[in-house]
Amino acid sequence: MRYALLIHYREPADGELTDEAVDEAKAAFAAYGRALRAAGVLLSADVLQLTAATTTVTRRDGDLRVQDGPFAETKEALAGVFLLDVPDLDAAIGWAEKCPAAQWGVVEVRPSATAFVDGAWTS
Amino acid sequence: MTAGDEGRAAAAVAARDSYGRLLALLSASTSDLASAEDALADAFERALRTWPDQGIPGCPDGWLLTVARNRLRDRWKSAQWRRTGPLDTERDAPVHLDGFDVDAIPDRRLELMLVCAHPAIERAVHTPLMLNTVLGFTADQVGRAFSVPASTMATRLVRAKRRIKAARIPFRIPDRSDLPGRMAPVLEAVYGAYVIDWATTGPQARQVPTEALHLAEVLTTLVPDDPEAQGLAALVHLSSARLPARLDGDGRFVPLAEQDPSRWNDRLIHRAHEHLRAAHARGQVGRFQLEAAVQAVHCARRQTDTTDWPALLDLHRALHAVAPSLGGAVAFAVAMAEVEGPVAGLAQLDKLLGVAGDRAQRFQPARAVRAHLLELLGQHAEAAAAYDSAIDLTHDPAEREYLQHRRNRITSAEQGSAA
Description:
The complex is a heterodimer of chains A (123) and B (419).
Chain A: E1 2-10, H1 19-38, E2 42-47, E3 55-58, E4 65-68, E5 76-85, H2 89-98, E6 106-111, E7 116-117, E8 120-121
Antiparallel strand pairs in A: 1-5, 1-6, 2-5, 3-4, 7-8
Chain B: H1 3-27, H2 33-54, H3 60-75, H4 79-84, H5 93-97, H6 109-116, H7 123-133, H8 139-145, H9 150-166, H10 179-199, H11 210-222, H12 227-241, H13 266-280, H14 287-299, H15 301-304, H16 309-322, H17 326-340, H18 342-356, H19 358-361, H20 364-376, H21 380-392, H22 397-418
Helix pairs in contact in B: 1-2, 1-3, 2-3, 7-9, 7-10, 8-9, 10-11, 10-12, 11-12, 12-13, 12-14, 13-14, 14-16, 16-17, 17-18, 17-20, 18-20, 20-21, 21-22
């Protein structure tokens, strides 16, 4: 079963993080990625740029609207998306708790409803 | 008794004893409780239709399981179901029904209990969900035990079951290292099973809490190092031991203080003390051990012929500090009244219930105790009114009659003194 681990945390201000802290986080994420791949559960993993770089697109009100910035301003922003294929929620929670970002943010574990695989949406 | 009656009776017994066991098996591979419930309901319905005429099968559980599995297969002949569904070679159900060995049917109720008490499920739903799925209580019965409307409870149960399926919460006993943390809500739910058996105020008579006894025993074997599991088992055994004395020869309710100890069940008391000794050996006090200790003090009346109320007051004070509850608050006030008099008891009752708010207003034991204390204080008009409101909240026929009797005694005493 496919689960998305959605990582949320407060975005650091300019210069808030020391180089050592950034290096430490990178090393932790590198180890985490290797562990996911070794376990054969990783579909994809992205850590996202800050919301300052994000653009929101909608035609919800009829016309195309392209907006600078995220859809909703919140204290904690979506910061990363990991897609896993694991047997059940316990396994997904197990990986979520090992995610380095769980140390300073929250990891939302959301089961996938349907996925585009081999040219079609799964049922 | 006709063959038809016998068939119906056998189906009712199978329903009570087997519901959780069958539901756990039917839902374990898919985490889909709702579909398993539907299939099981169909199987029970078919049993009620066919057993009276065709006779009770050699293994009723096996029969029900096979029929329910076939039902599930009929409904879900999709590719997904074939990929994830359990392998089941019993295509032609009737041929295999008599060959079932009841001991060969695995018991996965613990896995089901752990699913109900999973951290991803809202805490407040753990116990209701367990009572509903493992013990087969209806949303109506569970709602009554928790003092919420049946429709509200039904909605909560449906939502929780959808979540178990959608997020795929697995039916699996966790590693030893994770187990202790997962056990606390399981214990809580078994306790809920015992409470609903004892305190349910449904229109039907109460049943012996065999399920709570059995589940508590199973838990002590699964986690022998958990003193609270032992404490809970002791608690359920001690309460069950007093069950035969709760009704007199005419079916009238007898309150604890007036019960004849010679009618208490020795074997259950003995077993309870074994559990208590095992619990105390761990040197780690907890809520269920304290509640069991309270029951043990009550049961000691069998030997000593008196009730050690100061000891009970101490235990209730400790219990209230560890795990405050409405029932505990009422028992605390009763002990206070016994040791320091009805004025102190009533003050304690009102203080503790004041904190609990609205829910306390609908709590039947609180009303009944309040009426009793007012009667002791000679405030007859208030006592009569309090009995009336307690009677309104009581559905158990025997207890209702008892309260009615107490209330009438006040009224006739008043009339007697006025004449």
